[in-house]
Write a structure and sequence with these properties.
heterodimer, A: 216 residues, alpha+beta, Beta Polymerase, domain 2, two-stranded antiparallel ribbon, 17% strand, globular, B: alpha+beta, four-stranded mixed sheet
């Protein structure tokens, strides 16, 4: 009989966890929508706050585990050790369920982050940074006790343009070609990505200044 | 820049396994090794002779034999 691979075992684990992953996603999104409601109500006509959620699909979860260690660090050569199948569990991933809060303009980011922090004060911060270690988006993860005790959830608060750039990048490149995910570690592409972040941030700040000048 | 050093030495990037490799010298560097080392060390390692049999791997942590075998099958 053919021996089960690490991937086979992880697929089984994924579908056993799926109901809890769905509960964590729904619970987390509802909590965040509730706690940002006062900000949503106060937005001016040109401002936006959008909350999106997703669960990681099975193959993306396995690929992510191949690339990351339990501690969240990069696994060298993104390869499982076939002699140690017991070392791998999808429960080591921090973002099986995730919520992204997109805001425009950037001035709203801090306000949203501050509104959510008290609700999630036990969460572990894990900010997303660029190559210069400048924070692009606050990000937090933790167990979501009301929805289950095994699966961790993640939420991040990010500027609208940067968040939409990540969506486009994901949809156009990584979703149809999961094996290209390692492009993130290519130093040439990292430099180019940093230039995109810089341009988007500069545009958002300039746009905000222009709007404020027109309104004053 | 590190990228220029690798390109000039004919190293290509494997997106799936996050490694730089050269089929002529049969040497492989993990993306972490490249990220964590200064340019002069990378240049020195590139200048070292390759392996006479199989691939030579440069990594921050020792590589398990099963990982080496899988990477060798990917590299061909």
């Amino acid at each position: 009989m053919t021996e089960r691979t690490i991937e086979d075992r992880l697929r089984q684990e994924y579908f056993e966890l799926l109901p809890e992953i769905r509960r964590v996603e729904a619970h987390l999104k509802a909590e965040i929508q509730f706690h940002t409601l006062p900000i949503l109500r106060s937005l001016r006509t040109h401002e936006q706050l959008v909350i999106k959620s997703r669960i990681k699909d099975c193959e993306s979860a396995i690929n992510a585990l191949r690339r990351r260690t339990k501690e969240g660090k990069r696994r060298e050569f993104a390869t499982f050790n076939r002699n140690r199948p017991e070392e791998y569990s999808l429960l080591d991933l921090r973002d099986l369920a995730a919520v992204r809060v997109l805001a425009f303009p950037v001035a709203r980011l801090e306000q949203i982050d501050e509104a959510l922090k008290p609700r999630f004060q036990d969460w572990t911060p894990d900010p997303i940074a660029n190559e210069q270690n400048e924070v692009l988006a606050p990000k937090y993860y933790v167990y979501c006790a009301d929805a289950g005790s095994n699966v961790r959830g993640e939420y991040q608060v990010v500027s609208m343009l940067t968040g939409l750039f990540w969506e486009v990048e994901h949809a156009a490149i990584y979703k149809p070609n999961p094996d290209l995910k390692g492009a993130e570690r290519n130093s040439e592409l990292q430099d180019l990505t940093d230039k995109v972040y810089l341009a988007l941030t500069s545009f958002e700040q300039g746009f905000e200044r222009a709007i404020l000048q027109e309104k004053s | 820049m590190k990228q220029d050093i690798l390109r000039e030495a004919n190293y290509f990037y494997n997106f799936d396994r996050e490694m730089y490799f050269n089929r002529d010298t049969r040497k492989v560097f993990s993306a972490e090794f490249i990220a964590d080392r200064p340019e002069d060390e990378i240049a020195k390692r590139i200048g070292e002779p390759g392996s006479s049999d199989g691939w030579k791997f440069y990594s921050n942590s020792p590589l398990p034999e099963s990982v080496k075998q899988e990477l060798e099958s990917v590299l061909g």
